[in-house]
Amino acid sequence: MIVEILMVLFLSVGALFFLIGTVALLRFPDVYTRLHAVTKCDTLGLGLILVGLMLHEGATLASVKMVFIIIFVFLTGPTAAHALSRAAYKHGIKLWDKSVVDRYKEASSSDGDI
Asked: Domain range for residue 11?
């Protein structure tokens, strides 16, 4: 009974994070803030959903595979988002007008290249 409640809780919170990421994708003003929000929400949402599925499956080979999927997504999701945002910046996609700090510009002026 407790396991089922935890499973539903993890699945529901994971789905909620996916929903929040979708709303952020539609509401945020530029590619950088959208990418930041979607990456955080989707990574955490997928992790929570997979934990809920692991609780449903129990100690099986499928649960071990889900652990590896969680590790893979937690390592590659932020890395891919960073690569996409850096490529967008290098191709001249502007920050939002109300952005306060441009750390890439600061880094490029001190290092010569970003």
From this structure: 2-111
